[in-house]
Design a protein that fits this description.
Layout lengths: L2 E4 L1 H8 L6 H13 L3 E5 H13 L8 H12 L3 E4 L3 H14 L5 H13 L4 E3 L3 H7 L2 H4 L2 E2 L2
Parallel strand pairs: 1-2, 1-4, 2-3, 4-5
Length: 146
């Protein structure tokens, strides 16, 4: 059984039918399920999905309650939530500081840390360039677009 990690943008695309990447995102999730692979997302991504769903001007707008229902019904049943402990978060912060990363890049680093922690075989994102820019050598070849 393979382990596949999903970035926030892939998860959002799976639940929004009008999203430009909806077909690609749902296809890769269906492939994961069909082959019995295990899906993972970070605890951080869970809150990012909620944030994106409730702030993006989708038509129709997604209410907070609807976002929560989408997460519980369409994402969590298919994914295992990955949390980092204090030391793992500090490792991410140290790596970011040593590399001179600023801004939101640290959030992508959290995704990398979670995927590494679970020893994921694949990492799916629509931010391929950003993820590859910060990926440790062991994860670089595992990152792909659905």
């Amino acid at each position: 059984m393979a382990k596949w990690y999903f970035d926030t943008n892939v998860l959002v695309a799976t639940v929004i039918s009008q999203h430009v990447h909806h077909l690609a995102a749902t296809t890769v999730i269906q492939e994961m399920l069909r082959h019995g692979h295990r899906g993972y997302l970070s605890a951080h991504s869970l809150t990012e999905v909620y944030s994106v769903l409730t702030r993006t001007p989708f038509v129709p707008r997604i209410s907070p309650g609807m976002a929560q229902q989408m997460i519980e019904a369409q994402i969590l049943p298919q994914m295992k939530l990955v949390s980092l402990d204090n030391d793992e978060y500090m490792d991410v912060v140290r790596r970011a500081a040593e590399a001179g990363w600023i801004g939101g890049r640290i959030h992508d680093a959290i995704h990398m840390q979670c995927a590494a922690k679970m020893k994921c075989d694949r990492i799916y994102t629509f931010n391929l360039r950003d993820f590859r820019a910060i990926a440790p050598p062991g994860l670089m070849d595992k990152i792909s677009v659905p």
